[in-house]
Specification:
189 residues, mainly alpha, 7 helices, disordered C terminus
């Protein structure tokens, strides 16, 4: 009965002939299924919706390597921690879904920015280092040559640090799984 009342109100509110008309369903329970308080199962189901399914051509070895990669093991621990926090009493399914989508978007954008910075830094290091190496060899400044070797490593370390501190880093496992096994779709369309 509640569904029929809600549908009638929806149809009336979208009727173009009645522009200044608002229909409100008079029912005992106005909450939608997404407004219900989330359980851990609900949170896990939201996570599963975001996880890619490797295609039939993906070798099992690739899947096992992904799961056993120490970085991914750590990322999975972060994901479990986020699931436990999200499943705390008081959160609705819709709130958790919105937060999940937002954090995945924030994490992806943050990594895009840091990857651009990292790639630009590497290119800058190569160009500057190449010019400096010729100059420093001529002047016998071998300490300057050695510094050039470490600038790229330092840029890579900064990228790794950024991954650990990016907004939504607890959801990095989902991001990595989509990069590895997804069909190159954007996470959380």
């Amino acid at each position: 009965m509640n569904a029929a009342v809600r549908l009638s109100c929806l149809l009336l509110n979208n009727d173009k002939r009645r522009e200044n008309f608002n229909a409100v369903p008079l029912v005992q329970d106005l909450s939608l299924s997404g407004d219900k308080k989330a359980t851990k199962t609900d949170v896990i189901n939201l996570i599963i919706e975001q996880m890619p399914i490797p295609d039939d051509k993906t070798p099992w070895n690739n899947i096992l390597e992904f799961k056993s990669n120490p970085d991914n093991v750590g990322r999975f621990s972060g994901l479990r921690s986020w699931v436990n926090k999200a499943a705390k009493p008081g959160n609705s399914v819709n709130e958790i879904k919105d937060e999940l989508e937002y954090l995945l978007h924030q994490y992806r954008k943050s990594l895009e920015i840091h990857n651009i910075k990292f790639n630009a830094g590497v290119i800058q290091s190569i160009v500057v280092w190449s010019a400096e190496i010729a100059e420093n060899i001529a002047k016998f400044k071998f300490s300057e040559i050695a510094k050039g070797f470490f600038s790229t490593s330092q840029s890579h370390a900064e990228l790794l640090k950024a991954e650990l501190t990016a907004p939504g880093h607890d959801l990095a496992y989902i991001y990595q799984a989509n990069r590895q096994f997804g069909d190159n779709k954007e996470v959380c369309n």
